[in-house]
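Render this sequence as a predicted structure.
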Amino acid sequence: MAVDAKAKALRAKGERVIGFGIGEPDFDTPAHIKEAAKRALDGRIGFYTPVAGTMELREAAAAAFRADGVPAEAARVLISCGAKHALYNALMVLVDDADEVVIPAPFWVSYPAMVEAAGGVPVYVDTSADRFILTPEKLLGALTPRTKVVVLNSPGNPSGATHSREQFAALGEALAGHPGVTVLSDEIYQHLVYEGAAFISFAAACPALAARTVTVNGVSKSYAMTGWRIGYATGAKDVVDAMIRFQSHATSNPTAIAQAAALAALTGPRESVETMRATFDRRRRLMTSLLADIPGLALHRPDGAFYCFPDVRALLGPRTGRTALEFATQLLERERVACVPGEAFGGPGFLRLSYACGDADIEEGCARMKKYVG
């Protein structure tokens, strides 16, 4: 967000800035979803809904979870103000002071802050040497008697890495002997997988651990609805009930009009989802091919989400910047290319580049990066 704000300030001065910073689809919300919101405006939409969301949307979310192999029923589904809100609710009811939460690095920037807000202690596990996949050995090495939660994110932000069924099953076996640990699985990018990779929900891959898994999803990324702010979660009834009680005092219900739109997203046609996925796949292949042409830059090709996370450590120096933060700052100031330094994600020496932008921007932005490095 900070990088995006600086890029917008430069654009306001008339500068041509290429934005690889913010993680937001550049597509408009599909027409049938907006039409559902318009129809809802003609009804009695201006009232509180139940705190946990309308029953119709909870049922639709439960059906979506079941379609992914996650045991779910409407009574164990909470609708929240975005997937971020659902994650925050879960951590606030699961984590007490000094409890430890294992977070594979690189990670989405808000995970540690949420843990700390709940009084917990983030415990980071570096996955950069394993193509950003959490291994059972590293997971077991991070667990202690104070471990309360393990956060998983697949497909992942910022790396784009996607765990296979076998990889999740191995993690499940590692956790089998730690019954006090809950898995918090962030699956917001589930529909954005490419090139032979297949999405699998952790609870589906590890049915024996489904009862101590909180699965979180939402409509933001796959349906181009970031601003509508609707997410949803399911898990054990006592955990979901506690999340509902917590939300009742924090925000009450999510916006009624946004719930009507989200219902249309989950129950309506899916052609737009596939169109966006195919477009992101083409852009992914374009960006990775162009980045591969920059000497000294190393990249594990992402198979999910809409980010590349290249390693620029070999490029750091007095002229380009001694850290990824300095590199990204100078790249924006000198070549007007906005990206996010890996330090924000627990990945120092890396950059996150979003390809949720047009082909022309990807081509020009990568050309500017190559010029800067040269």
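Summary. Residues 2-23+271-373 form a domain with the Aspartate Aminotransferase, domain 1 fold (CATH 3.90.1150.10). The radius of gyration is 21 Å.
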